[in-house]
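The protein record filed below.
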Amino acid sequence: MKSLRVLVIEDDALIAMLLSELLAGMGHDVCATAASEAEAVSAAVCHRPDLMIVDAGLGRGSGVSAVEEILRAGPLAHVFISGDAGRVRSRKPDAVVIHKPFREAELARAIDMALAAAPPSVEIKRFAGR
């Protein structure tokens, strides 16, 4: 797998740090982390990642809503992580979702699936009003 620029969207600082370390150990570059829906949208515009790893339930906003807004600018591979994967799938049936807690191998498979499902990347445009 080639090295990817990854945006981590996770509201628990410890989990975000551990996930960032795990991704770095897999050979990826974590270009930014975001803890809220608004920060996620802003970080996607600013850093133009190749992939997003998204906690579906954020304390301030929704990871699912953040991804929906980010994808309005064009396709971008993403993986949801959640303690309630069924809830994510009820809203986004085709989503790549892994259940917390997960192992590195599960994350690697999910990343491969997300990359295979995503159309070729396009540059993320500035969002109106942001």
About this structure: The chain has one domain: 5-116.
